[in-house]
Amino acid sequence: MAAQRFSRRWLLVAAGAAGLVAAGAVPRPAAVEVDAAALRGRILAGVPPHVGYAESTGRLGLPQIPQLESTGSLLGSTTRIRAFVAAADRWRVDELTPVGERDTYHLDGTEYLWDFGADQLTRVVGQTPLRLPRAADLLPPELARRLLRLAPADPVAPLPARRVAGRTAVGLRLTPSDPATTIGSVDIWADPATALPLRVEVAPRGGPPLLRTEWIEVVDRSPEPAELTPTVPPGAGAVATSAADVSGALRSLDAPPPPDRLAGRERAPLSGTPDAQLPGVGIYGTGLAAFALVPATGDLARRVVDGAAAAGGTAVEVPIGRAVRLATPLVSVVVLASRRNGVLLVGTVAPELLEQAVRELPGRRRA
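The structure assignment produced for this chain is given below.
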């Protein structure tokens, strides 16, 4: 039953990491020459071992809606993160909370999730193409690489150096070229010797930065084996689930296949193993201007629509059912609820694009 509850949490997907905070004034170090294109390449080339403590701060302003509460908290407050990274496939990240912590271990394709509050360790085998954001996604190296990978051809320019975690960091600014994305710029500062990203800021078009994540302390060393090994304390629970469980939970919704095209954008192929494919889920567009379609139960969608409307969402006129739009400077969400099922559309795109997409959905019929 615990594994089933875990799977249901994956039925809603939030796209991208977004929050709001203005950078504080800091003394400016001496100028450091940097080739922005070369720095981008070095950041994408690999993950140097490191151990440290980071903080991510945001004021995104998404209302609390059913089954997205954890995402709203990540993107609307300060998240304290402890990380132990040996390599891209061997790491541990702890989200520190006022009452404990939630730890994620990733070891050679298998993940372990330790929830202090639930006193439970969950083993997850395999990966799904989509999932809810988590604290590990907000670490400066992970967020920097994710955003740079999504926009490989977009221009970058050097930024003035600044002090981060006691180091002089060199910087670059990525400016998205696709006018459909709400992201106006991504600023990244990295260690000049190792290319480890130390600070990332994300800003919407025409606005101040809406996300800041940075290392407060970081050390260049490999974690000890014990730091990467999950353990179950005496009396704690242990359960197992797999990526296939998520696929099965979605399959039980009997959602129609996602259309090949929405709002003028082609559906992109989903990565992952065949048993981890997500029935009814579609990704449309590319790079930073992509959005996701995720099916949901009619009951859940109706609760989300009601909650979003009460929180100030904007009603969207649709041929069948009810729909509501939630828009922030970075993330747009549209939820459709009909008698039998529902749909979530979300992405770092203009809300008008998602409105167009949701109006095209009622014509779908399962074969």
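Interim note for the steering committee: The helical segments are 2-8, 36-45, 69-76, 140-150, 243-251, 298-310, 351-360. The chain has two domains: 2-228, 243-360.
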